[in-house]
Amino acid sequence: AQKITQTQPGMFVQEKEAVTLDCTYDTSDPSYGLFWYKQPSSGEMIFLIYQGSYDQQNATEGRYSLNFQKARKSANLVISASQLGDSAMYFCAMREPSFYNKLIFGAGTRLAVHP
Amino acid sequence: DTAVSQTPKYLVTQMGNDKSIKCEQNLGHDTMYWYKQDSKKFLKIMFSYNNKELIINETVPNRFSPKSPDKAHLNLHINSLELGDSAVYFCASSRASGRDRGETQYFGPGTRLLVL
Fold it and tell me: Do A105 and B44 touch (CB under 8 A)?
């Protein structure tokens, strides 16, 4: 069974608008970490944002915020004021509980920002 | 200034050859990883070392052998390359495994391997 699900293979958004990329996860461990990475067309993997399962507040990093809904097991990435440079693949990942920091990745969402 | 570096960036080789990919991190991290990204962009962990000790060894053909001479370096050697080994291989590093932000993994630029 998939532990990380990203249901949107592709999304597009108008420049300067906000966009939400969905991610749901599955674990029975109370302690886990959730991550979002960006992969532009140049291929590198860029860390964006982290949310720990015990964090009381939703994580924010500049224009990125994580809408963490623990009961629903969702960790959606919100990008505000989209820029053309935000066009990329976005991956949600979960630290596999009790497995030495092993990351399990979702299939990714390709975001296209239109001018 | 590069935090996690990999060499080579591109590798084109023939089936049956043996090749190595090198990874170095200057972040002072204790843990390093190898991931494989296939043609559909799916990322999967292969190996992880913590302070030169192998701690994650996924179901990977034993043609793949990681080696960590010290905690700043993690190399990946592949014997008898096959067409299906064509992929992007990412190295990553993090502080020692912990249940906080320190577990964030930082990735190298990737090595694009093409087996002909």
Answer: yes
> Which residue in B103, B106, B111, B112 has the most chain A C-beta atoms within 10 A of its own C-beta, making it the best mutation to test that interface?
B103
Specify whether the backbone of B6 is left (phi greater than 0), alpha (psi in -120 to 50) or beta: beta
A34: which chain B residues are within 8 Å (Cβ-Cβ)? none
- For the stretch A6-27, pLDDT in tens is 999 999 999 999 999 999 999 8
| Tokens 């461990």 found at | A29
Report how far residue A44's alpha carbon sits from residue A38's, in angstroms, rounded to the nearest whole number: 8
pLDDT of res. A68: 97
Residue type, B44: K
Beta-carbon separation of A100 and B48 below 8 A: yes
| A17 alpha-carbon distance from chain centroid | 18
Least confident of A30-34, A79-83, B82-86: A30-34
- Tokens 């919100």: give the residue: A78
The residues, any chain, with a CB within 8 Å of residue A91's CB and separated by 6 or more, are A6, A36, A37, A38, A39, A45, A105, A106, A108, B43
Q: How far apart are CA A82 and CA A51, in angstroms?
A: 21
Shortest CA distance from B3: residue in chain A: A46
pLDDT, tens digit, for every residue of A82-109?
999 999 999 999 987 666 778 999 999 9
Name beta bridge partners: A56: none
**Is residue B7 a contact partner of residue B113, using CB atoms and an 8 Å limit?**
no
Q: Is the peptide bond before B8 cis (omega within 30 degrees of 0)?
A: yes
